[in-house]
């Protein structure tokens, strides 16, 4: 039987409290006049708060508004004007036994006055239900107080009359955030899934879904079109299931080009396509080892100024020579190993909001004035950790069984010899993601407890091109899990890990990898911690049924012997190590059913298992009390 935890009644040691606390500063933004900042911060229990600071009056935060977390929380905010903000709230709720995610967008003045819902209100006669709150797609820098949003409209019908509203689908609209008046830029379209503007109020690219046969299901592909002289012309097609085609992200009005990512020589590259009718394309940034996967944008116009990719550390390539010089100079000013990012800018880009962080610094925000050349410290992301000594993160490679060199990151406890330590292999989630150099709260907590932590970018990870990705970490599970197992063997062979105290810890797909590694190599890992894990591939596909992406999930996971052979729950009898499971019961990404099935299968096989369930929490367990509880319990569980 699962242990139900009611938040926030937990007990934890002091280190767990520090590392498990949610970041004190989340998603900071700068006002158009450059005189104010706004940020989101966790409140007591499940609450989130929006704060603003008038920088002309000091560094004192003033609370603007609050979201209770029951069931929605603040997720992001941005400046409509220098006195008004637009924010998104999101949450998950349960209805008739099924989980649904929802969001809303609203605007509010910095003094908390004049709140207004910007999400499209649904009529009582709507033919359907829409849970998406809409997206801000242009901050309209030259139109103070208005924004452009994409919002979904539903048809309405009055039964017994001929009165009906037939508009249905995604629209692009200019909205006055004070009075709520709207004006169509693009009328509702049933096929539209995305609109991309040029940052100054013009929709230049739109994405249209392609249906799966006669169904309404997601096909895994989007056709993109661009506007030229009032006509929509084909731009390209993105097949995101098979990782092919052009994926547009932004439009540069100065050069009249769309910037996006596209496979080039087996790796993702930044590509620009002309929107003048010529179809001319240019590879802007590519790399022969890794994917170029980051677009660097700045200011209220979301101006494209560069791209980035991750080798051992993330590297930015700037098109703007001034920003390139600034990034280099600021990085040196903060420290040799610091990464610098331009988080936001005022309307004229004379004041820049800077984030700087490293492997041993969770991050600090600064304001840089280009006119005075002054760098003003603002707030730290995790101030409680500022006096805590953290472990340096070292890029390493280790050999897989077939000789392939697998990249990863090794973090050792500060001051340790690096030998004969309790150790953890920590595979990342996804699997369509990768670990990067920098601060990681989960890894650093275990390091603070004396563990060495190795985070492998196993084959099946994203970021290293198509050949490395193979068929994804589920269909190619043998290769991915083999690389994870080899990470543990390398730790032992190098003398870093004490063989009797080698464990594996993972979240989401990482939890799957932890459990499946214990199936394949039962005697290697002495304990398994799996957080929100996928445990049964058939269940994972079945959970998607009834949702728009059901066919995409089905094809992503695939069919064949790997469904049973690659499912830890179907092979629980092979596991010999004790297992600890953590899961939120409002997890829509990986439903809690997975952990419940795993617990039952392990118990039926006479294995040791502990299952901790968190009520009302989703996949990320974004709650300080839950994270503190998880860290405390897992640290006590792992062998030393």
Q: If you had to describe this structure to a student in words, what would you say it looks like?
A:
The protein has 3 domains: 166 residues, Lipocalin, CATH 2.40.128; 97 residues, no CATH class; 245 residues, 3-Layer(aba) Sandwich (Rossmann fold), CATH 3.40.50. The N terminus is likely disordered. Strand 21 and strand 22 form a beta hairpin. The chain has 640 residues and is of the alpha+beta class. Helix 1 packs antiparallel against helix 3. A 9-stranded mixed beta sheet has the order 1-39-38-37-36-34-35-33-32, with helices on both faces. It has a 5-stranded antiparallel beta sheet with strand order 16-17-18-19-20. A 4-stranded antiparallel beta sheet has the order 2-3-4-5, with no helix packed on it. The two termini are 27 Å apart.
The rounded distance between the terminal residues' Cα atoms is 27 Å
What is the count of β-strands?
39
**For the residues shown, what is the average pLDDT?**
93
Could you describe the largest sheet, including whether it forms a barrel? Answer: 9 strands, mixed
Lateral strand order in the biggest sheet: 1-39-38-37-36-34-35-33-32
Task: Give the CATH class of the largest domain.
Answer: Alpha Beta
The level of helicity is 10-25%
Stated plainly, the CATH topology of the largest domain is called Rossmann fold
Beta-strand content bin:
35-45%
Shape: globular
Helix count from the secondary structure assignment: 11
Indicate the radius of gyration in whole angstroms: 25 Å
- Subunit organisation of the chains: single chain
Structural class of the helix and strand makeup?
alpha+beta
């Amino acid at each position: 039987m699962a242990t139900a935890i009611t938040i926030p009644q937990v007990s934890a040691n002091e280190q767990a409290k520090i590392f498990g606390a949610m970041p004190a500063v989340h998603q900071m933004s700068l006002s158009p006049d450059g005189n104010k900042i706004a940020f989101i911060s966790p409140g007591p229990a499940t609450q989130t708060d929006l704060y603003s600071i008038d920088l002309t009056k000091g560094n004192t935060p003033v609370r603007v508004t609050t979201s209770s977390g029951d069931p929605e929380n603040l997720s992001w905010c941005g400046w409509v004007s220098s006195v008004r903000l637009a924010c998104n709230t999101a949450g998950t709720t349960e209805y008739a036994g099924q989980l649904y995610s929802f969001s809303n967008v609203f605007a509010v003045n910095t003094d908390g006055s004049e709140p207004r819902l910007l999400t499209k209100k649904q009529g009582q006669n709507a033919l359907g239900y829409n849970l998406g709150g809409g997206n801000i797609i242009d901050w309209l820098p030259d139109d103070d107080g208005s924004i452009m949003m994409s919002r979904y409209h539903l048809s309405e019908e009055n039964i017994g009359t001929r009165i009906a509203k037939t508009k249905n689908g995604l629209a692009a609209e200019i909205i006055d955030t004070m009075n709520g008046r709207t004006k169509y830029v693009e009328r509702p379209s049933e096929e539209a899934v995305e609109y991309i503007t040029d940052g100054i109020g013009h929709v230049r690219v739109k994405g249209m879904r392609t249906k799966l046969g006669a169904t309404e299901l997601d096909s895994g592909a989007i056709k993109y079109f661009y506007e030229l002289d009032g006509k929509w012309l084909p731009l390209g097609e993105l097949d995101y299931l098979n990782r092919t085609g052009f994926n547009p992200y932004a439009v540069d009005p100065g050069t009249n080009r769309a910037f996006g990512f596209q496979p080039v020589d087996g790796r993702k590259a930044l590509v620009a396509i002309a929107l003048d009718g010529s179809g001319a394309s240019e590879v802007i940034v590519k790399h022969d080892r890794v994917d170029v996967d980051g677009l660097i944008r700045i200011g209220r116009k979301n101006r494209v100024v560069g791209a980035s990719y991750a080798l051992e550390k993330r590297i930015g390539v700037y098109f703007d020579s001034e920003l390139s010089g600034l990034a280099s100079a600021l990085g040196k000013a903060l420290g040799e190993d610091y990464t610098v990012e331009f988080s936001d800018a005022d309307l004229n880009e004379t004041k820049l909001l800077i984030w700087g962080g490293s492997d041993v610094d969770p991050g600090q925000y600064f304001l840089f004035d280009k006119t005075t050349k002054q760098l003003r410290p603002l707030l730290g992301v995790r101030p409680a950790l500022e006096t805590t000594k953290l472990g340096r993160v070292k890029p390493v490679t280790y050999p897989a069984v077939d000789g392939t060199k697998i990249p990863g990151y090794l973090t050792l406890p500060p001051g340790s010899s690096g030998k004969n330590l309790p150790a953890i292999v920590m595979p990342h989630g996804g699997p369509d993601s990768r670990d990067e150099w920098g601060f990681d709260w989960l890894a650093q907590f275990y390091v603070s407890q004396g563990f060495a932590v190795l985070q492998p970018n196993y084959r099946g990870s994203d970021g290293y091109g198509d050949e490395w990705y193979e068929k994804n970490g589920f269909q190619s599970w043998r290769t991915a899990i083999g690389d994870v197992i080899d990470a543990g063997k390398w730790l032992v062979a190098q003398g870093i890990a004490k063989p009797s105290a080698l464990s594996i810890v993972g979240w989401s797909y990482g939890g799957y990898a932890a459990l499946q590694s214990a199936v394949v190599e039962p005697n290697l890992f002495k304990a398994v911690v799996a957080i929100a894990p996928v445990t049964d591939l058939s269940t994972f596909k079945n959970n998607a049924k009834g949702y728009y992406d059901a066919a995409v999930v089905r094809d992503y996971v695939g069919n064949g012997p790997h469904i049973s052979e690659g499912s830890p729950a179907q092979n629980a009898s092979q596991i010999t190590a004790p297992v600890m499971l953590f899961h939120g019961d409002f997890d829509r990404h990986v439903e809690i059913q997975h952990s419940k099935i795993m617990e039952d299968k392990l118990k039926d096989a006479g294995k040791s298992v502990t299952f901790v369930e968190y009520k009302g929490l989703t996949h990320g367990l974004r709650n300080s009390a839950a994270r503190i509880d998880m860290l405390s319990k897992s640290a006590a569980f792992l062998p030393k």
